[in-house]
Amino acid sequence: GIFLSSALAVFLTGVTEPIEYMFMFVALPLYIVYALMQGAAFAMADIVDLRVHSFGNIEFLTRTPMSIKAGIGMDVINFIWVSILFAVVMFFIANFMIKKFNLATAGRNGNYDAKNADDNSSSNEPTVANANAQVVQIVNLLGGRNNIADVDACMTRLRITVHNAELVGDEAGWKQAGAMGLIIKGTGIQAIYGPKADVLKSDIQDLLSSGVEIPKS
Q1: Angle, CA 120 vertex, CA 118 and CA 126 arms, to 5°
Q2: Which has the closest alpha carbon to 216: 127, 145, 164?
Q3: Do the Cβ atoms of 178 and 193 come closer than 8 Å?
Q4: Quick one: pLDDT at residue 125?
Q5: pLDDT block averages, 10 residues each, the chain of length 217
Q6: Given 44, 154, 155, 184, which residue is catalytic?
Q7: Could you tell me which residues are beta bridge partners of residue 162?
Q8: Most C-beta atoms within 10 A of its C-beta, which of 20, 96, 141, 148?
Q9: Contact 166, 153 (CB under 8 A)
Q10: What pLDDT is recorded for position 120?
Q11: Do 178 and 134 touch, CB atoms closer than 8 A?
Q12: What is the pLDDT of residues 88-115, one digit of tens each?
């Protein structure tokens, strides 16, 4: 859901910040390469005829008839193949870097070797979670494991459904756990955490499904 909404923002309006903020802080090496590739894409205007510009496909489609009427229809063709070229190149670069360096992009839960997880689970995994961990604090603020019905997240917020909202901690407690704000509507809980909300969602899901004891914090 978070990637679909971000992709629509880019394709329709040219607003790239939603996608960029999802990885620029947690995967800085990837963002540096991404920035260089964007610069190279703009530099193509000096290599081939690219006298058209648009923010998103809505503007591109409305400008195309004017570009053709102005006699620069070939520039539109160049715009399309250059965009496709850099999209494909950036995909393979990002795919390689994320897998090679295990970068913590949205939806990925830090650095661990999934191949050996089952082999080491019995000997290395703790039976009790760290009471000081942020994710443990969040689960306790939600009333504990048994009070959590569903875990989700949007761009900046944890969206949790609980069984009993009366067991949920107050806003002061949430702020101590790093939240910037709290919204409670019935059994729906929204905790504002900024771009790390999606990562926290994955951490909560991992903790709940791990079976380890969650101590009161």
Answers
A1: 105
A2: 145
A3: yes
A4: 55
A5: 84 88 87 95 90 88 91 92 95 93 74 44 64 89 92 90 93 91 92 88 89 82
A6: 154
A7: 148
A8: 141
A9: no
A10: 47
A11: yes
A12: 999 999 999 998 888 878 777 543 334 4
- Of 216, 173, 170, 165, the residue nearest 189 (C-alpha): 165
- Candidates 131, 104, 94; CA nearest to 195 is 104
Rounded CA gap, 55 and 12, in Å?
8
Q: What is the pLDDT of residue 90?
A: 96
Beta bridge partners of 181: 192
3-state secondary structure labels for all residues of the chain = CHHHHHHHHHHHHCCCHHHHHHHCCCCHHHHHHHHHHHHHHHHHHHCCCCCCCCCHHHHHHHHHHHHHHCCCHHHHHHHHHHHHHHHHHHHHHHHHHHHHHCCCCCCCCCCCCHHHHHHHHHHHCCCECCCCCHHHHHHHHCCCHHHEEEEEECCCEEEEEECCHHHCCCHHHHHHCCCCEEEEECCEEEEECHHHHHHHHHHHHHHHHHCCECCCC
Query: Distance (Å, rounded) from C-alpha 172 to C-alpha 180?
Result: 10
Tell me the one-letter amino acid at 169: G
User: Does residue 59 have an active-site annotation?
Assistant: no
CA 82 from chain centre, in angstroms, equals: 26
- Tokens 């107050």, residue? 170
Which pLDDT belongs to residue 126?
61
> Which residue has tokens 């670069």?
93
